[in-house]
Amino acid sequence: MASSMNRVPTKPTKRKPAERAFYEKPADKATSSDIINEARSSLRTLRTNRPHTPKDDRRTFFGERAGHERPPSSFSLGARHLDGNDSRPSSRDTGRPVSGKRLAPLEMTPNLPPPGPVSPPGGDAVPKLPKPPSIVTKRPGSGSRRQRAKLINAVSQEGITQVLPPPLVRQNSMPTKPPTSPEESQSRRVHSGPKERTRLELQHNGEESNQRSSSAGTLHPPGQRERASSGGSCRSESGYVSDRAASRGSRTGSGSKREEETAEEALYWNTKVAPILERVLPPHLGSVDSPVVEAICKACDELYDALEEGNMLGRAAKRRNVALKTIFKLSDLSEPRVLLRAARLILALHVSGGNLTSVCKLVFKISKEEKHDSLFLENNILDLVVSLLSRVEYPDLGEALVYCLGALKFLSGNTTVSQRLSQAPLIQALAKLLASINEQQKKSGRLSKTGVNLLVQVTGILRNLADLPETRGDFLTRGIIPELCHIMDVYIAEGELMLNVSRLFSKLTLSQDCCSALVDEATCFQCLLNLLDKYPERSDITVRVCFILGNLTVRNDDCRYCLFNAPNAMDILVSVFRGYFAKDLKGLRETPQESNSRSSSGENSPSINKTEDVLIKLIRIIANLSINQDIGPLIAANETCVDLDYKDINISEELVLNAVITINNLSYYNIPGSAITERQMDISRLLLKLLMTDNMAGMIEASRVFGNLSRAIEVRDYITNKKVDEMMMTLLDAGSREIVYTSCGVLINLTADEHRRPLLKQEGGIQKLIEVMRDFGRSDWQLAGMVCMTLWNYSEKIESSVETFGEQETADLIDLLVDLLDEETALDTPENADWDEETQDFMRSYWHSEFCPVASQLLQRVERCQSALVPIGDES
Q1: CB atoms within 10 A of CB 861
Q2: Whole-model pTM?
Q3: Nearest to 662 by CA among 622, 617, 696, 615
Q4: Strand partners, 516
Q5: What CA–CA distance (Å, rounded) separates 623 from 508?
């Protein structure tokens, strides 16, 4: 590639005006018709369909390339994973990890020697056991391990069974006073060793059903019923039950004590909340019947309403843990409706730590099945999930956030649910999370695996929400696009994340406002090019990046400069093009068996060819870049960029049309050293094949290219030999004005040669051109001007209008030109046309700029040579 390909001016340069016909507009003068006539411009941008993304019915947490450090998507979850004492301090509060599990007692039975004396060999005396080492309370170290090793060796050498030493005694413990009552003894045993605690819990669980019936209006936490019945009997009659133990059990996550429960709060709890809690749990856990499910769901809804009415949601309720312990047991059920209502209550009570992770897993587990999506539209569960995102800080609870975001990613794929989510402040919460993750990365200077896992889910949600037009404004106002550009720059090695970002930008860049916001980022083009360079073999990423670049360069000339001037931009684009072009040619040479194998593997299918789709998007970028008057000649001089052979248009229509349009753009630049000029005969032969097809769009585009190539005499000779000129005159009878327009473009150049002009009259072309101007003139002044240009070139050597055009043709041409040059007649709105004032102004501009200059000159020439008198030659 020439080095000049990497250097272009940052703004257009003035060109020396070349010799031109009088009807050609100056190159440096833009008219209003130039602005509104982009569709017929010699240089045209390309539009293409968005990359094909088949719907994946499988709801996967991470893609098929999931790494080993990502949280599992399948897990078992039940009440045992939830800690009933949610108010206990977390690891962040205490500075040390807090276990959420209770350890079962160890059944340790020492291996003692059998009873009776043991006689050593060679003697009758019973050997004495070795004296166990003294117990040391210092921290175990290398010395203590050596002492235990010596003891083990000594015992093994003596052949005597080892006797375990007694448990260590905590010397710093305060001496305890013997219990004076059974209640006090039981209370203290609760805080003793694991074996006693476990036995006591089993005892309470056995007594719970008996006590439930006796506490109709009062519900006490386990371990507090005895004290409540004795110490608080005088207050229970009024509905007020409160003791220090309950106060100690109600603590916030930070370990601070809550205020004592008031009489009004206790009365509300005992009369409104406690009776509903009694009805929440079914008679037995596991599979339940539909009537029971309905009753549980109704009780859960009533419980939520009662807690909300009593201002007991969040962490405000004094007996919040009592409610949570009951609600947690619902997680052992298998009914999704019940589980989701339990999750709703748990989220509303603002659990933290491991409980928060477990409830996020619960929501995630339900959302994995698409049939459960409608359940999330009931009540306010979506609002609670979005509120959780706004409340939780990264990286405090990264695992809980991953599962919460994963659930939202699944749900946002449902159009109805995504509409509901768009009404919640979800994008605002996601924007805050994106900024937090990026800020953490900037501070630490490294990539966090948890951060990557979160970003995969966040970008997946945003990708789904980007389909909604009403969310586009939030993407711009919340600053999401700059954060995504930073992600592209930093996390380029994360393929799944880059796929999500590319899919997201491929949707956003369909909006001009989003294109402008993306272009404002200085690293935008370089990041996109780096993605192409990093993942040339991944067609799913490559096709979307090319689509994004095509969207950015379709309208904005500054974007064309920025992309072309980016380091190694053309090298990367051409390299990717070569790779996929070679892959496409290889696919054409495959046997039917090999082709079927590739289709079954999903690489290529009859409905969408991924390799071809990448080529379509790449060619579009080259076509858009070639619009620029400085970049176009540099691309035209590069042989690789114009190596655009194409396949059968009936099979690969979009690819063929894009290739021909790109050749048309590059052939516009008739400059020395142009690769188009050097290969114009090969291109002409390929275009001739396209003209012979029945594809109307292909014929139009091929005619456009011939309109540029026919400036060369070699191409005009080839066209004449292959009777393309006759074909162009035949196409003048077509009903499509675009075909007629392109045919006139070819005829203009053909009539520039004197010896090719007679054919126009012989084939009835004069009368056809007049009819075209009569049929389309008032509604298409540009086409009418093209007809006048063709007739002007044809009549260059005119001496008699009648002999040149024909008697009837001359009269019709004069009458028609006179009518069309009359402004009042010409600009009269045609029948069946409803033009507003703006359209009428456009048509007036076209009439002045495109038609009048050449039509008035043609009329003067025809009238001047219309006289029947002929000059008399000198007598010999």
Answers
A1: 17
A2: 0.71
A3: 622
A4: none
A5: 22
| pLDDT number for residue 514 | 92
The confidence score (pLDDT) of residue 622 equals 92
Residues 28, 569, 6, CA angle at the centre, nearest 5°? 55
Q: Is residue 375 part of a domain?
A: no
- Left, alpha or beta for 54 (phi > 0: left; psi -120 to 50: alpha)? beta
CA dist., res. 17 & res. 19, Å (int)? 7
Closest-CA residue to 861 (of 800, 777, 819, 818) = 800
**How far apart, in Å, do the first and last CA atoms of the chain sit?**
69
DSSP output for 521-553? STTHHHHHHHHHHH-TT-HHHHHHHHHHHHHHH
Separation in Å, CA 232 to CA 171, 204, 227, 228: 37, 20, 7, 5
How many other C-beta atoms are found inside a 10 Å radius of the C-beta of residue 65?
Answer: 9
Structure tokens at 668: 């516009």
Q: What does DSSP assign to residue 851?
A: I
Domain enclosing residue 235, as ranges: 74-91+203-367
CA 305 to chain centre: 38
> Number of structural domains, the chain?
1
CA–CA gap between residue 367 and residue 550 (Å, rounded): 36
Query: Hey, CA dihedral for 55, 60, 61, 62, is it positive or negative?
Result: negative
Reply yes or no: is the peptide bond before residue 72 cis, omega within 30 of 0: no
Cα–Cα distance measured from residue 323 to residue 809, given in angstroms and rounded to the nearest whole number: 98
**Token pair for residue 217?**
């209006």
| In a domain? residue 324 | yes
Secondary structure tally for the chain: helices H, strands E: 45, 0
Q: What is residue 189's predicted lDDT score, i.e. its pLDDT? A: 42
Whether 299 maps to a domain, the answer reads yes
Please list the rounded mean pLDDT of every run of 10 residues in the chain (876 residues). 45 42 47 38 60 56 53 51 53 41 52 50 47 47 51 47 45 44 44 40 40 38 39 38 41 48 90 92 77 92 94 87 91 90 94 90 92 93 92 80 92 92 91 93 88 93 91 91 95 94 95 92 95 94 96 92 94 93 79 54 57 92 92 82 63 86 88 85 89 86 89 90 90 86 90 87 91 90 92 90 91 93 85 80 89 93 74 47
Measure the CA–CA gap between 654 and 616, rounded to whole angstroms.
Answer: 7
Among 696, 796, 711, smallest CA distance to 745 is for 711
For residue 597 the two structure tokens come to 């194998």
The span from the CA of 419 to the CA of 438, in Å, is: 28
* 3-state helix/strand/coil string of 699-758: HHHHHHHHHHHCCCHHHHHHHHHCCHHHHHHHHHHCCCHHHHHHHHHHHHHHCCCHHHCH
Q: Which amino acid is at 226?
A: E
> By the 8 A CB rule, do 548 and 509 touch?
yes
Whether 548 is covered by a domain: the verdict is no
Write a three-state SS string for 584-648. Answer: HHHHHCCCHHHHHHHHHCCCECCCCEHHHHHHHHHHHHHHHHCCCCCHHHHHHCCCCCCCCCCCC
What is the maximum span of the chain, computed from C-alpha positions, in angstroms?
Answer: 168
Residues 373 and 408: beta-carbon distance below 8 Å:
no
> What kind and span of H or E run contains 659?
helix 653-667
Q: Which two tokens stand for residue 662?
A: 């790109």
Using alpha carbons only, give the angle 501, 506, 511 rounded to the nearest 5 degrees.
Answer: 120
